[in-house]
User: What shape does this take?
Amino acid sequence: MSPFDRIVIIFNPQSTGDAPTSAEELRAELARRLPAVPLELCPTQHAGHAREIAREVAGTGRPLLVSVSGDGGYNEVVDGVLQAGNDRAVCAVQAAGNANDHRRTTRERPLADAIVAGEVRRIDLLRLTLGRGSSAQTRYAHSYIGVGLTPVVAVDLEKGGKGSWREIVSVVRAFSRFRPFPIRLEDGRRRTIDSLLFANISEMAKFATLSEGSRPDDGRFEVVTQRRTGKLRVLGTALRAATRGLGPQPSTTHYAFTTLAPMPLQLDGELVELAADTLVTVDIAPRALATVF
Assistant: This one.
């Protein structure tokens, strides 16, 4: 007996990674191996549509929602499922698009095998809260949240492709335009940062190792901080992450700061523009997501 009463495969028909073909291949294999479980393909029609589909599908029953996507598409599905508030809804991801660090880092077997086995496990999520009080906005991330240069460069590297001229151009452009960001910590201290990254997985951008010993189910997230040190040191940190790794990093369950200038924030690869004087709070949401991998 499958633990799922239906399987819904969500994909972007305009994906750069041929998500439609991958989604159809997965549907065909699951139809053959799980003939009693209803299957549905759901193409998205616009940005944010995957979140809407996931929220509606996850509202009832025991569905499995499979995102055939990169990290950003999976973020929408995960966030939509959490908004639905149904603990019996399960998420999974099949890598497509520019990159899927989450799938690459957590993968234990082919996804179809994991779905057929039906061994549901729970992992942590990062809960991002922007603002305070009744006007606060909450979103969830499965892999990382970051501000400053490092997450921006990581995403640009992924789009350019490792070792390509496009990669070199994107990195040079990001460095030339980058300015450090001022923030105020929860205790009132001010900091000027080059990069601040909160990670629920140990790697990003295919080849950058952020920390050692971290797991997406250990009840904590890692904090990778680069205070204002100059662009050469930031570049050195990026190179170290890409070669031997950054080594053990401090971890916590809560971190908060206030932006003192407008700045970009990356949420699993999705860009969010923050206004000045925005309270940013990151908390661990332990065992918040049911998944198979």
Observations:
- Residues 208 and 242 are 4 Å apart (CA to CA).
- The domain at 128-286 is CATH 2.60.200.40 (Tumour Suppressor Smad4).
- The chain has eight helices and 17 strands.
- Confidence is low (pLDDT under 50) at residues 205-209.
